[in-house]
Specification:
The structure is a single chain. By secondary structure, the chain is an alpha/beta fold. It is built from 13 helices and 16 strands. It has three domains: 129 residues, NAD(P)-binding Rossmann-like Domain (Rossmann fold, 3-Layer(aba) Sandwich), CATH 3.40.50; 181 residues, NAD(P)-binding Rossmann-like Domain (Rossmann fold), CATH 3.40.50.720; 77 residues, ACT domain (Alpha-Beta Plaits), CATH 3.30.70. It has a seven-stranded parallel sheet, with helices on both faces. A five-stranded parallel sheet has the order 2-1-3-4-5. Helix 1 packs parallel to helix 11, helix 5 packs across helix 7 and helix 12 runs antiparallel to helix 13. The chain is elongated, with a radius of gyration of 26 Å. It starts with a strand and ends with a strand. 41% of the residues are buried. The structure holds 1,4-dihydronicotinamide adenine dinucleotide. The site of 1,4-dihydronicotinamide adenine dinucleotide has 31 residues, from helix 5 and helix 7.
Length: 402
């Protein structure tokens, strides 16, 4: 394992380096996002690469990086990587989709209170020398109904926290979900919109959720209610929302994600919601906390460790999934990625049988293009057998662990 060198770029949380070094890997940290040319040259000396969202790994880079065994996106998204090419080269790409769940949920709870008390506007006014001491339009969240659209990782966490604040929680999801606490599922989005004092959106970006909240849906919301969106910018038609706020149909909103977002902190941000009353606008920071960065560092490091040490590919977004136990004593493990074509497994098994190897366990998982085969065989035959398997015309990568 000490022969495997790992490069972590883009200021990945140091906990990842620490955890990987504990397992015997050699790790270098870089604070910046390298250019493609620099990375192609660096990857001659590294076998595993960690990036965040800025480093692009396209086809030319991947196909020139023969030694690359695995990629970790220490973030949520993976569209900076050409996943199809990585798949066909047998390179799993890991990410950490749920490490910032709690951070988003906490922001939503804070926003419910902030909207109910018009904190944003009163704070701005106080900074400008104003003094708006009045109870008018200010409410407790206790006893109010929170409607959660999308009861997945984030939605269900919001549910638990909101109940602790004394809210009634209802939710709508396209999949049947086990309600937590006293939360109650409803049958349709319109039912949820009509019953909620707060609506919070926690759906993924899909063709169904694109423009899910338009003029019609906003008009179904209660007069004086609030909308919170920390999911994806395309879920809400922002011009329709601005209109509902100008008409005072909604009493405010908190929006963290936008249909078009600046690519960097240097770019100007523009939105039809700017300047409207009781509107909280945040720059896509729902999941941006130090705790989440730490959790992401640890989660991807653990995925690397499981893949490199025992071959488990769970957590990879572009690779057949194999969850593995540590092999029984005395065995070595052969990991083989091959083109998914009929007859490959029988070729592998014919080689095993010819070599006289005693197979202790075998696992196979496939996707459209590749198959991932893991085989535990007795120590004596393992190395020669792995070499033979590696020579098969449809083998892409073969390695031995233990
Ligand atoms: P998840 O996959 O755990 O949950 C999504 C839920 O939405 C699932 O239960 C799914 O069945 C449901 N759903 C899908 N389509 C639906 C529809 N048409 N109507 C109702 N329900 C539907 O996802 P997770 O982790 O809870 O994330 C939710 C959203 O939050 C994602 O869009 C993600 O990109 C976003 N997010 C935003 C962050 C930020 O910084 N603001 C940080 C992390 C995630």
């Amino acid at each position: 394992m000490e022969k495997i060198k790992i490069l972590l770029t883009e200021n990945i949380h140091p906990v990842a380096k620490q955890r990987l070094e504990e397992e015997g890997f050699s790790v270098d940290l870089q604070s910046h996002s390298p250019t493609t040319a620099d990375l192609i040259s660096a990857l001659k000396s590294y076998q595993v690469l960690g990036i965040r969202s800025k480093t692009e790994l396209r086809k030319d880079l991947l196909s020139q990086s023969q030694h690359l065994m695995a990629v970790g996106c220490f973030c949520i998204g993976t569209n900076q990587v050409d996943l199809t090419t990585a798949n066909s080269l047998g390179i799993p790409v890991f990410n950490a989709p749920y490490s910032n769940t709690r951070s988003v949920a906490e922001l939503v709870i804070a926003e419910m209170v902030a909207l109910s008390r018009q904190l944003g506007d009163r704070n701005t006014l106080a900074h400008q020398g104003g003094w708006l001491k009045s109870a008018e339009g200010a409410h407790e969240v206790r006893g109010k109904t929170l409607g959660i659209v999308g009861y997945g990782h984030i939605g269900s966490q919001v549910s638990v926290l909101a109940e602790a604040m004394g809210c009634r929680v209802i939710f709508y999801d396209i999949i049947k979900k086990l309600p937590l606490g006293n939360a109650v599922p409803v049958n349709s989005l319109s039912e949820l919109l009509a019953k909620s004092d707060f609506v919070t959106l926690h759906v993924p970006e899909t063709t169904e959720t694109q423009n899910m909240i338009r003029r019609k849906e906003l008009s179904q919301m209660k007069k004086g209610s609030f909308l919170i969106n920390a999911s994806r910018g395309t879920v809400v038609v922002i011009e329709d929302l601005a209109e509902a706020l100008r008409q005072k149909h909604l009493a405010g909103c908190a929006i963290d994600v936008f249909p078009v977002e600046p690519a960097s902190n240097k770019e100007k941000f523009q939105s039809p919601l700017q300047g409207l009353a009781n509107v909280i606008l945040t720059p896509h920071i729902g999941g941006s906390t130090e705790e989440a960065q730490y959790a992401i560092g640890l989660e991807v490091a653990e995925s690397f460790i499981r893949y490199l040490k025992i071959g488990s590919s769970s957590g990879a977004v572009n690779f057949p999934r194999v969850d593995l136990p540590v092999s029984r004593g005395g065995a070595r493990r052969i990991l083989n990625v091959h083109r998914n074509e009929p007859g490959v497994l029988s070729e592998i098994n014919a080689l095993a049988s010819k070599s006289g190897a005693n197979i202790q366990a075998q696992y196979l998982s496939t996707d459209e293009k590749i198959g991932y085969m893991v085989m535990d065989v007795e120590r004596a035959e393992a190395s020669a057998l792995a070499a033979e398997i590696g020579k098969l015309s449809r083998s892409i990568r073969t390695r031995l662990v233990f």
